[in-house]
Structure formats: structure tokens, C-alpha cells
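Journal club side-thread
Mid-discussion, someone asked how the predicted structure for our own chain would compare to the paper's figures. Pasting it here so we can look after the session.
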Amino acid sequence: MRFDDATLAALCQRLNADEAFIQSVPKAAAFLFQAGELAVFLRVEPGRCAEARLGGSPEVADFVIEASPEAWERLLRGELDAIAAFTRGQLRLKKGSLFALMPYARAARAIFEAFRA
């Protein structure tokens, strides 16, 4: 899968048109997803995706989630569930608490589905 700023802007647009995502964001949060050298920053607010871009600093993210590039590919293709990946250690929470992350589980599913759209 190719990642660039245009792809990520389109992701935000798809999320903002997705009722499941709109209803699933409990409060504002910033996520940094890391896979090897690749980092994707995603900022959400209740009812919308506010920002999606390449890069980002762990210092400004509420949650930093790391996985191998292979695990991310499987997540994005729908071959791996995010919750299962966490329990198997394929996704690692490097910043933030799992308890605070849990309310975003439905939003995560919508995000991964939007990547496949």
C-alpha cells in the first residue's frame, strides 16, 4: 500500500463521510502509527478526522502504536484484527494506556476499513 499526503487526505475525507466513524470517536486524540521508517499521524475529534499526514512526533501524540510493516499490511488488507494484533503482541502501544485506547476500538475498525476503500 502506498502512503503519501494525498492518500492520507483522502482517508480523512472518507472517514468524515462514514457514519460509523463519526459515531465512534469519543473525544479528541492524536495517534502516531509507526511501521519501520514509516510514520502516519492521525488526529481525530468527536465526529470527524481533523488531520492525517505522514510523519509526526511521539511527543505530540496521545497514543503511539508500533508494528512491523508486515503486520500493518495485514491490518490494512483486513487479514488481521487490531484487537487480536494487540493481544498477540503484533501491535505494541509505545505511548498511552491501553485502558485509554479501548474507547477508540470502533474508530480503529472504521479507519482500517477506510484504508481499504
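Post-session note: The domain at 5-116 is CATH 3.30.1050.10 (Nonspecific Lipid-transfer Protein; Chain A).
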